[in-house]
Structures are given as C-alpha cells and as structure tokens.
Amino acid sequence: MMHLGIESLSNPLLLAKRKVQRSTMASSYDRRGGNHDWSNYIRREGRAAVMMESEGPGCITRIWTADPQKGTVRIFIDRSPNPAIECPFAELFDLLPLSQGIGGESPENYARSKAEALPMGHTSYCPIPFQHHCKVTIEPEDDYLYYHVNATLFPPGTRIESFDVGKSLDTEPVREAKAVLDNWDSGKPIVDMSHAKNRAFELAPGEEMTLLDHAGAGILKGLHLALRTDMPAHELAHIRENLWLVAHFDDDEPRDASVRAPIGPMFLDYGQEPKPHSLFLGRNGAGEYYCYFPMPHHRKAHVRLVNRSVLPVKLMSAVLHQPEKEIDEDLFRFRARWHTETPYGPDHRDYEGLACRLLNLDGYDNVEFLYAFGAGHFVGCGFNADMSDGPTDRAAGEGDEMFFVDDDPRLTMYGTGAEDYVNDAWGIRGYVGPLSGDAIGGEWGTNVQIYGYRLHVADPVPFIRKGRFTIEHGTGNNCSGHYKSVAYWYMDPSLTRTRIEEIRWEEIRTGKRKMNDPE
C-alpha cells in the first residue's frame, strides 16, 4: 500500500522508511529571482490562471496561501472536464480537513493573529491523490496572490485511488491524522513515555553522561530532558547552547555522529517566546524538552549528553527504547545537525528600491540548513536569524527558501519568504503549531531576531544523490546576520561512504575479512 504522507502523523515510524517518491512545489515565486513573488502562474487559460499542474500518479500534500479572499479555485483530477473541487478560494480551507490559519491581509486579521497567536497563512495538509493528472486553477486571475502547492510524485505504475470529494475527506488516514492533531491541541503527546527509563544526574563542566548504550537492533522512540527552571536567564541561555546531545548509531564514525546539536536548538528552543511544542519536538507543559522522531538502528546505539558549558548542570532524562531482534532494512538512519553561519550582504536599506530588487535563482550564497550527499529525505528544521549586529534588517523576512534536489531543475523548490515557509504570512507575530511555528524578538530596525520551524511530516523531501536545503538571508541575500539552525533528515547508511565502511570494504577486497563477518 502506498502511503500519501499524513499516515506518518499517527505512525511516526513511517517517517524513517525509504521514500520511493519525489517531491515538487509549484509556487508564485518571482521567476527572475527577485521579490515580486505573487501572482506568478504556470500559464493563463482564458480568465483562469493555472497554479499547479502535474502528471500522476501523485498526491497534493500541502496547499498554502497568504490571502485566499479572491476568485474561485478549481482542482481537476485525471483530466476530467469537471473539477473535483470548485469553490471560492476563501472557502477551500473550510472544506478541506487538516487545515489551519486565518488568511487574508486586514487590520482585523492582524489583530486576531497577534491576540490569539494564530498564523495568518492558510494551510491545508489534506491529501488530494491523483492517478493520471492534476491541475489547480484560480478564476478570475488574482493579481495579488501568494501560493504554494506541494505534491508527491510516485513511480510510474503505482496505483493510487484518485480524490473524490464524497469519500476522500473522511478516509481512515484523515480521521487518524485529525485525532493526532486534536490530541496535540489538548496536550497529549504522540508517544506514551510511561515505560521510559528515568534518571536524575549532574554533569560537571567537561563531563558527559550516557543516556543509552545498546548492542543490537532497536528503535529509540522518545527522549525527554528536563533542566532546572530556577536558574538565572543568562545561565539557562548558556547551557541551552553548550549542553550537547550526541548520538552514534551502527557504524557512525566518532567525529560524524548522527545527532550532534546543542539541546536548546535540537528541541527548537533558541530562546524565543512562545516556546515551541510541535508534534515531534519542543518543550512540554512540564518544562521538559522532548523528541519523538523515531531513531532506528540495526547493530548498536550510543546516546550521550556532553557538557561543554562552564557551569554544572542538573537534569533529569527519560529514554524510551525498544530493542528488536532485527529491523527493516528500509528504515533509514535519523540525522540532526547543528549549523551556524554569519553571512554578509550589501545591506541596502531602501525597501522599495534596491533591497527588493536583488536577483537570486541559483541560491549560491544562501544560508544552508543542510547539504547532504547520498540518499535520504529531509523532514524539517528549526532556525534563528539574529539581525541585531547587522547594518540593517530591511527585507530580512523576505528571504526565500530554496531546495535543490539531485541537481534536477524539475525538483527544485522556490518559496516566497521565511514566514510563508513556516505557514504564516504578512510578517511574523508568533504562533506555535503542530508542524510549524514562528516567533519574533527585539524590535525591527534595531535588534530584531526571527525564529521559525517547520516539520515536513506529511511532505518530506526525498533525494537520491544529494539534497541542499537553503534560505536567503533577506531577499536576494540582502542582509548580514547570524543564522543558527538544526536540520532533521533520514539517511540511507549504505550510501554514506564513511572511512569505517571504506576500511571494511578494503579488508573484504584483500581477503582479510569475509563479506558477512561481524564487526
């Protein structure tokens, strides 16, 4: 059975499975590489404009827009002359389940977004599968429309039950996904940690503590960490970036851990308010950091905390690990990697002038969240853009996300801005969602900081040879600043040619080791 994406909400282990599909995104990005990223369409058909068109088999996995207030949207499935969905764009997100946001630029929505901590972008993760073909249009053509339409494309010959408005809005995967989101809304986690192993300990500066050391196959299903909450804010900030989580699985090299990140950013906490508490990562109501990304391993797992701070750290941990005799070879290895970068830009201050007229399509100077070689799939990131020491923050939030997959232009994804990437719109006021969120600190023009996260659970981005996931530092890379991020992805370990693997294959080649000899 081919999964459409949302099944990973109720069965997280599916996130780790090898992906045979490819991902695409149609958007209103500026085709010249500038900041005119609205109302750019594939083509016109009479009074209508085509937003997205794709051959099947495939599935629309996400629809986002900043302002769905104008026009009629039509979604045509399998070249039928009659649309499977036809309604005012403003009503589409009421029709589709798994939708969020208030949508539309207006004083009332600005006030409501800030007061209720809601995203102004309208987003739906309702799957819309198609066997042969899919086309999305808007009529009449909207002259001020920002949009994204993400889709998964399956291998030729895959059988998909095409979307039917009478049946597809209430399938079992949709109901299960809705139940997961309802549980999240009520504070119930997706992983039951009642059988986790708990311990309390203290780490002196320079010390480390092993949280899990297992020989054999298994799956790390959940991890909780709780710091003292009575520390001064500056001490907590210091520990947040200097207490590191490090995890090695199977044949990871000592200097190439699968997980290597400070615990704050690892759990989406860069010091912002409100604190993120997504489905898979964040900080819960009890003040505990948590991670529910499944981490399968075939031969061994070693997870530890390393105190790189100058302070002693008292904390509690809970580890939920499930030993197995063996696990599916198609379960990839979880990876999480911390990255910090201080890019420079021309720092133009004229928003209506040069600041928004810089052109960038190749993404060469973008901030990199991830640059991975081999086969895998990207499942999300968290980031912080600190502009407090830069000459200007003009157009800082207009930096577009750009995903470059396998050097294939057909798979390149161009977005329309940082707040749009995290399912918000018209600036950032701060919200926390199950799959995305954002926050802002300081003041524009003086010391602004931008925070965001998005988890690609229903819409992972697979790559076969390499994946490069980036964002502009301001539109056209205008702004200097300090960027911090953690990327999350799953990787095929057989295609990561580490030195240990090369040594093993050399021993096999020279006869010092047999093919199936244990390590």
Largest sheet: 11 strands, mixed
Number of separate strands: 32
pLDDT < 50 runs, ≥5 residues: none
Percentage of residues in strands = 35-45%
Mean pLDDT: 92
Label the overall shape.
globular
Class derived from helix and strand content: mainly beta
Q: Span between N and C termini?
A: 36 Å
User: Into which percent range does the helicity of residues fall?
Assistant: 10-25%
Radius of gyration: 23 Å
Number of helices: 8
How would you sum up this structure, described in words?
There is one protein chain. This protein is globular. It has helices at 7-10, 89-95, 107-116, 172-185, 233-240, 263-266, 418-421, 499-509; strands spanning 22-27, 43-45, 48-55, 58-65, 72-77, 85-88, 99-100, 122-124, 128-130, 133-139, 147-153, 197-203, 208-215, 217-227, 243-249, 259-262, 281-283, 289-291, 295-297, 300-307, 313-324, 333-341, 367-373, 376-386, 401-405, 413-414, 431-432, 436-441, 449-455, 461-463, 466-471, 482-491. The strands form five sheets. Strands 13, 15, 16, 20, 22, 24, 27, 28, 29, 30 and 32 form an eleven-stranded mixed beta sheet that branches. It is mainly beta and 519 residues long.
